[in-house]
């Protein structure tokens, strides 16, 4: 498949360059805090990086905006495309709209109506397909043949990691600005691994400990790290819909090298963490975005005895509200 | 009933003095914005004053903290008490805890368990009573006789208005700091009228237009203004549980003098506004806190043609999450 132009080397410096590019295109999302949540959870200040408040409702706007910025003029003219039913679709649609270029999204016809509405609202061309991997890929190939649009992958690309890694640069700055001092650790969700990989590269050499957070019911990354090689034989079955993807080919070795450990949590722990974030932080986080907080609340994580404040990444807020308002 | 010591005159200057007192005790809550919500609603920038993110989950912490600050040393030693099942109970409990004094709360035994848990978590003494006005008042009298605690009323007091009016001072400053310029209007919910009254006093002479927002099903303030006198014969029946109280004796004339108009909205409009705030702003607002946004979305309000940004007060975030997570 066609992908974007060659990328910078995977390094903290490249992520600084990426940040200069995306900073005007995304929100510098706040670090939210709650004395109650921090004191109930342990002895560390918890700094919640609120990517649920980012444009399009998730961190995906960082990678999408950065990926588009790396396109050549010729590529830009052709527009972009992807297949996704979730946050990457909305983010790419908005990033393309901001750049003023065409965007084509292939989504399964079973995708949540609210997510399809967001894609349409951002002006992207939406093509619905049957809910199978084969149908998605066939539909995407057809879009590419018809339009020449450049495929922007959701996670399995160096540019994606460089874009998502900008989260770390902001968090370490904001922790200092807010008077919390140097971060002791950062905990981020891992689905495809674009964000966790990027954060781990940005943190390399800083002394900040980097941890992944994954549902037990989609634990391919944790299992892959234990086995020493990427695991692909798994059937994800978790409420955390953003984390059902396998870790990407490009992302896995980066995580292997730079992430101290990936912790897993149960569905019950995810739901309880999500409810606490809604109730105490008054912030709408989707299940995937609550997985790191569920990890931080676990005994296994508490046993680590982190020294310093902990940045907990809330990756997105595009939660299904039909139950609350149905 | 015993009340706190004499208060300053009701004026913008007094509210500035109150702000100096409460600023270290409460959050300077942010002005949240959404380009989508603003552009879908009309031609004005909407600046959502996020009092749902304030300590104890609502603006009530302002009035409670300020009321306690006005107690004499002798009164402080006796502690404070109130009857409430809602945000004032939690706010007074926290403000008393911060001051290190006893707090006694009388609540109907039918109050939501989550709200009672918050009161207990803040260390207040909780006394449950039957869910009638008579039982509440009798229980409160008994608490006062037993403990000598000073009654801090939830809304019907000058000190309460002075405390809640600080919302306006912050909003007008933040609008300038954020580059939005001078406010064109501010819209606040009206239940007992402590917040709307205080805001209207703080705004007097500034040229900022002040509007109230009330459920149709608890429209005593709007009816009172139309009639030219306070209305007390009403049976509130609205999802906006914070706005079921009648406008206070002290508050009504202040609102009558300083508020341009009180708009009413239907239950459906309130729920739709609440859902939009959760979905787009990713912020958990309780029904009462969504009433001003429901007003701003109405045709009647849009016909006003406000000149400048509109501050929309989201008063609290202590929403019942049992439906979303039940």
Can you tell me about this structure?
- The structure is a homodimer of 326-residue chains.
- In chain A, helix 5 (87-99) packs parallel to helix 6 (113-121).
- The N and C termini of chain A lie far apart (41 Å).
- The mean pLDDT of chain A is 94.
- Chain A has 16 helices and 10 strands.
- A 6-stranded mixed beta sheet of chain A has the order 1-2-10-7-8-9. A 4-stranded parallel beta sheet of chain A has the order 5-4-3-6, sandwiched between helices.
- In chain A, helix 6 (113-121) links the parallel strand 4 and strand 5.
- In chain A, 46% of the residues lie in helices and 14% in strands.
- The longest helix of chain A has 15 residues, at 133-147.
- Chain A has 2 domains: 12-58 and 159-325, Rossmann fold (3-Layer(aba) Sandwich); 61-156, 3-Layer(aba) Sandwich (Rossmann fold).
- Chain A is α/β, with parallel strands linked by helices and 326 residues long.
- Chain A has helices spanning 12-22, 35-41, 60-69, 73-78, 87-99, 113-121, 133-147, 158-164, 166-177, 194-203, 220-227, 251-258, 267-281, 287-296, 299-302, 322-325; strands at residues 31-32, 46-50, 80-83, 103-108, 125-129, 150-151, 185-189, 209-215, 261-265, 310-314.
Task: Summarize the entry for a quick read.
Two copies of one chain form a homodimer. The first copy, chain A, is of the alpha/beta class. The first copy, chain A, has helices at 12-22, 35-41, 60-69, 73-78, 87-99, 113-121, 133-147, 158-164, 166-177, 194-203, 220-227, 251-258, 267-281, 287-296, 299-302, 322-325, and strands at residues 31-32, 46-50, 80-83, 103-108, 125-129, 150-151, 185-189, 209-215, 261-265, 310-314.
């Amino acid at each position: 498949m066609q992908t974007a132009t060659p990328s910078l080397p995977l390094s903290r410096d490249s992520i600084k360059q990426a940040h200069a590019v995306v900073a005007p295109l995304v929100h510098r999302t706040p670090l939210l805090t709650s004395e109650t949540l921090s004191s109930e959870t342990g002895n560390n200040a918890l700094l919640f990086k609120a990517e649920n408040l980012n444009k399009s409702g998730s961190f995906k706007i960082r990678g999408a905006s950065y990926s588009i910025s790396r396109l050549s003029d010729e590529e830009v003219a052709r527009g972009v495309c992807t297949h996704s039913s979730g946050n990457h679709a909305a983010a790419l649609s908005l990033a393309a709209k901001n750049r003023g270029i065409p965007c084509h999204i292939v989504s399964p016809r079973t995708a949540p109506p609210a997510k399809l509405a967001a894609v349409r609202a951002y002006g992207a061309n939406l093509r619905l397909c049957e809910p199978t991997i084969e149908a998605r890929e066939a539909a995407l190939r057809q879009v590419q043949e018809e339009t020449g649009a450049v495929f922007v992958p959701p996670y399995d690309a160096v540019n994606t990691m460089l874009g998502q890694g900008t989260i770390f640069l902001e968090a370490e700055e904001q922790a200092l600005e807010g008077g919390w001092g140097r971060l002791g650790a950062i905990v981020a969700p891992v689905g495809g691994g674009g964000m966790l990989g990027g954060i781990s590269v940005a943190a390399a050499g800083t002394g900040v400990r980097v941890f992944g957070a994954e549902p037990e019911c989609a634990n391919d990354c944790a299992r892959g790290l234990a086995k020493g090689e990427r695991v692909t034989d798994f059937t994800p079955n978790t409420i955390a819909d953003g984390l059902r993807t396998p870790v990407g080919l490009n992302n896995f070795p980066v995580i292997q090298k730079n992430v101290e450990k990936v912790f897993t949590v149960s569905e019950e722990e995810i739901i309880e963490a999500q409810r606490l974030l809604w109730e105490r932080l008054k912030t709408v986080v989707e299940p995937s975005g609550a997985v790191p907080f569920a990890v931080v609340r676990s005994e296994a994580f508490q046993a680590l005895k982190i020294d310093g404040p902990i940045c907990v990444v809330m990756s997105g807020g595009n939660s299904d509200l039909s139950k609350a308002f149905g």
